[in-house]
UniProtKB/TrEMBL annotation:
Name of the protein in question: Steroid monooxygenase
UniProt keyword list: FAD, Flavoprotein, Monooxygenase, NADP, Oxidoreductase
InterPro entries: FAD-binding_Monooxygenases (IPR050775), FAD/NAD-bd_sf (IPR036188), Flavin_mOase-like (IPR020946), SAM-dependent_MTases_sf (IPR029063)
Organism: Pseudomassariella vexata
PANTHER family assigned to the protein according to its UniProt record, in alphabetical order: DUAL-FUNCTIONAL MONOOXYGENASE_METHYLTRANSFERASE PSOF (PTHR43098:SF5), L-ORNITHINE N(5)-MONOOXYGENASE-RELATED (PTHR43098)
Single GO molecular function: N,N-dimethylaniline monooxygenase activity
């Protein structure tokens, strides 16, 4: 069966600088592409931030796209620091110049992006519920694109006009003769203040933290300078690529400590001040951001400038930052400080005060009231992860990007995330801090080369290793933490590390090692043949996409077998005793669990209870997500409404009902750490009886019947059971193959991670004691080092054990290690998370061992996912799948797979590129 065809080869989210550059690159590769953007026109951040005075504070000649020579000749900027209007015109020109607009769907906001392991495709879903699929997913959503929303009390009561600078209305706003308040002193507030002051009746700036505002020194670019800019373009761009921040600046070649003479230091700083923008902070002294004493010299110089410019001493002092320069991003202003000399401009210090809105304006915590006709919120952005946090991004095995980034945002050099195959981030988290268009060219060149390599080499999937991600993320953290400015950034709520967002812990969101260092990481990866990447070929993914159900009629291990034959087995069940069909029992049990889960989630939420921050937090998330899901809501609606009705129902459901009735009422106490789950599950041997109950009984029987078929034809077979535990599956196999205790194979090796399990197994299986060998085996570790002969077993039985390990690849690798080529692994596995297993086993820490591998919703794998895991580990994939129930109730299966010889395995391909 052919692999599923995607709607597009690639989908890009965002139509700003990054999205446009991505579209061009993908077009050059000959791929079909689609771009979605929530705005009605191109521009990205430059579309939404059209507030008065909006302009870049980077030089026009490096604030450009640079993928083709004609781009330089086709466009002339008119100012050193281009305005928002001019930048948007520039981007529109580029889009139309290369016919990219036809690929963009405007006015479309994305709600979710989900990756499928079985099809190797991303499904991108809009807020309207429309879905589109692709092979490559490129979120080009920007690092400063999600505005920090105003959360001040009383906003609804305010009767005047209010605007958010980062979501400025398209229509013209009349400010003439109005009383205007501006809240925020970042780049946005710094640009708005001098723009609106001349037209306002009164303008008041509410300042929590003052900023170091460098002089912008903007000027018009005439035809003569334009000619010079174009002539020197290549050299300018090369210089920018050598600069840590992507600016066309050179190191000063001197330090304050080295100059020492105070007059000379001031002269150099004066020269830098007059040049403006980043020339002041980056081309005066090289130790400005490295040495606290040198930094204080430069910081005090700026404070003296503020005191010299602002005539009112009290206002000047309020405008003087007391923290080191560089702790927060320094904006470039255009007569910002001079504006405070106007009689209609006022500064209100709220560093020790809180503000709220009331019907006429703003009220401070000290009860001072200020009336305004217009309030403008210039509060900044949810930087780095903000845009992707607003989209439900789920990678391999339903790994949630939001959850993965909660504690410590991790990437490989800001372009790839482990567990999110074929997702290339464009100018987002972990990009070097600085001039983004220059960084963008480096990022897209790397992404383009990587995708080109995949297309030429017939590779379907790329995933970066966790080791590579850890290495990069550790490096990024070390670069930031080694800077003396880092602690000051935390204290003064810098968006560099996300502390501008209330309640958010400091996290390294950008790379502070500089553009050249970052580029060297990316270049090294290509030069080494992408050795930190795991590639999967189309041959493997095609094999993984044979279609389901898997082989219903197959020859496995040299014997002919059909799923239909296995599934036709008559298995005595508890449901038979109460006159209930197995599917009815399953559905009633699911409803009972759903009601208990619903009650528990409501109690935790309504009571503001704290869930333990260990493995129980993962369980809480799974329970919470279940209640919110469509399937969960449907089951809750069908379930009993009272405890008495629940007790009546569960009393009919055998051991499963006993487990539900015992665990359900304890859910909240378990989640909050007040009740020990093991006490309830182990009491009266409940856990052991759960293993022998109806749930999973049928696939265990299938494993026994398959073993009987094998051993009936060959008596020399060596069988090894992994994770045999208390012997539930073993008992089924022995009853089928040796009902009277007679020999039926050459060896039956009974293993588990600890010999502590053997006592129970030896007691239950005493009848077959002479046929069994007991030995400890940790299936995640090398079998040979544990005393097991490699490639010596014909059949390995693993019943509900592999999913309960930290690494599926390690565990399957160990099984492959002990199997002969052509030997068979019989996996009994839950293939779908059910409410019963969610509730019964979610409280146990072992249920969450796979979290670090990305199995955050549950440890379970679908049959499709097992097929892919087996192929990667050197097996044939799923040769045959026999299920417990027909659809839609099926949730457990026997999966048979054959071990290939080492020289023919289809593992992840890590291919050098020459």
């Amino acid at each position: 069966m052919l692999k599923k065809t995607a709607d597009y080869d690639a989908i890009v989210i965002g139509a700003g600088f990054s999205g446009i550059r991505s579209l061009w690159e993908l077009n050059q590769l000959g791929l079909t592409v689609k771009c979605f953007d929530a705005a009605s026109e191109i521009g990205g951040t430059w579309y939404w931030n059209r507030y008065p005075g909006a302009r870049t504070d980077c030089d026009a000649w490096i604030y450009i796209l640079n993928f083709a020579p004609e781009l330089i000749e086709d466009w002339d900027y008119h100012e050193r620091c281009p305005s928002q209007e001019e930048i948007q015109r520039y981007l529109s020109r580029v889009v139309d110049r290369y016919a990219l607009r036809k690929h963009i769907e405007f006015g479309t906001r994305i709600a979710a992006a989900h990756y499928s392991d079985s099809t190797n495709l991303w499904t991108i879903t809009t807020v309207d519920g429309l879905s589109t699929t692709c092979r490559y997913f490129l979120p080009a959503t920007g690092s400063l694109s999600v505005p920090k929303a105003p959360s001040f009390a009383g906003l609804d009561s305010y009767t005047g006009e209010w605007y958010q600078a980062s979501d400025w209305p398209a229509h013209k706003v009349d400010f003439k003769g109005k009383r205007i308040a501006i809240i925020g002193t970042g780049s946005t507030g710094v640009q708005i203040v001098p723009k609106l002051a001349p037209v306002a009746k009164g303008l008041t700036l509410f300042q929590r933290t003052p900023n170091y505002v460098l002089p912008g020194r903007n000027y018009a670019i005439d035809e003569y300078q334009t000619a010079e800019i174009k002539k020197n373009h290549d050299a300018t761009w090369e210089l920018a690529n050598m600069h840590p921040g992507g600016h066309a600046l050179k190191p000063a070649g001197r330090t304050i400590k080295g100059v020492a003479d105070a007059d000379k230091i001031r002269q150099i700083l004066d020269h830098g001040w007059e040049r403006g923008c980043f020339e002041f902070s980056m081309e005066t002294f090289d130790d400005c951001f490295l040495d606290p004493e040198s930094n204080e010299t430069v910081s005090e110089y700026i404070r003296q400038k503020i005191r010299a410019i602002v005539q009112d001493p009290e206002t000047a002092e309020l405008l003087c930052p007391k923290y080191p320069l560089g702790s927060k991003r320094s904006p470039c202003g255009h007569f910002y400080y001079e504006t405070f000399n106007r009689p209609n401009v006022k500064l209100v210090d709220i560093s020790q005060d809180e503000i709220a809105l009331y019907e006429k304006g703003i009220r401070t915590g000290s009860r001072a009231e200020h009336e305004f006709d217009v309030i403008i919120f210039a509060l900044g952005f949810d930087a780095g992860t903000g845009a992707l946090d607003e989209i439900e991004v789920k990678g391999s095995q339903d790994k949630s990007l939001g959850n993965y980034w909660t504690e410590r945002p991790q990437t490989f050099a800001g372009v790839l995330v482990s567990g999110f195959p074929n997702m290339f981030i464009v100018c987002g988290l972990h990009m070097p801090i600085g001039n983004q268009p220059v960084m963008l060219e480096t990022a897209m060149n790397w992404i383009g080369q990587t995708i080109c390599h995949m297309e030429k080499s017939n590779l379907a999937k790329i995933n970066v290793t966790e080791k590579a991600v850890d290495s990069w993320s550790d490096h990024a953290n070390e670069m930031w933490n080694s800077a003396f400015l880092s602690k000051h950034a935390v204290e003064h709520r810098s968006w560099f590390i996300g502390t501008n967002m209330p309640g958010r812990p400091p996290r390294v969101l950008f790379y502070f090692g500089g553009l050249p260092n970052w580029k060297s990481w990316l270049d090294s990866e290509i030069d080494s043949g992408w050795t930190n990447m795991e590639f999967t070929s189309h041959a493997v993914t095609n094999e993984a996409a044979k279609g389901f159900p898997f082989g219903r009629d197959a020859s496995v291990g040299g014997v002919s077998i059909t799923a239909k034959k296995l599934e036709s087995a008559v298995v005595p069940l508890q449901s038979d005793e109460i006159g209930m069909s197995p599917t009815d029992k399953f559905n009633l049990g699911s409803r009972a669990c759903a009601r208990y889960i619903d009650w528990a989630v409501k109690e935790v939420n309504d009571g503001g209870l704290a869930v333990k921050q260990d493995h129980l937090f993962h369980w809480w998330k799974a329970l919470h997500d279940f209640v919110k899901s469509d399937s969960g809501r449907a089951l809750i609606q069908q379930s009993p409404n009272t405890k008495a009705e629940l007790d009546q129902l569960t009393s009919k459901l055998g051991v499963e009902g006993e487990a539900i009735g015992r665990i359900g009422p304890e859910l909240v106490r378990m989640l909050t750490g007040q009740s020990n789950p093991l006490f309830h599950i182990l009491r009266e041997d409940l856990l052991f009886r759960m293993y022998l109950s109806d749930e999973g009984a049928r696939p265990n029987r299938y494993a026994a019947d398959y073993a009987k078929l094998l051993t009936s034809q060959r008596k020399d077979l060596r069988i090894l059971e992994v994770g045999a535990g208390t012997g539930g599956t073993t008992l089924q196999v022995l009853r089928a193959c040796s009902p009277d205790g007679q020999p039926f194979c050459a060896e039956y090796m009974y293993t588990d991670i600890s010999s502590g399990f053997f006592k129970t197994g030896q007691t239950i299986l005493k009848k077959w004691e002479s046929l069994l060998t007991f030995k400890a085996l940790n299936v995640e570790n090398d079998a040979a080092k544990q005393g097991f002969e490699e490639h010596s077993y014909d059949l390995v039985i693993a019943a509900n054990v592999v999913h309960a390990t930290r690494s599926l690849s390690n565990s399957l690798g160990t099984i492959h290690q002990v199997l002969k080529p052509g030997g068979v692994v019989a996996l009994v596995e839950l293939t779908r998370l059910t409410p019963y297993f969610n509730m019964a086993f979610g409280s146990l820490s072992g249920w969450w061992l796979g979290v670090d591998e990305g199995r955050t919703g549950s440890p379970l794998q679908s049959a499709e996912q097992w097929n892919e895991q087996l192929l990667k580990a050197g097996f044939s994939g799923v040769d045959l799948a026999a299920y417990d129930f027909p659809e839609p109730e099926r949730h457990s299966a026997l999966l048979l797979s054959t071990a290939r010889a080492n020289n023919s395995t289809s593992k992840n391909l890590i291919l050098p590129f020459f």
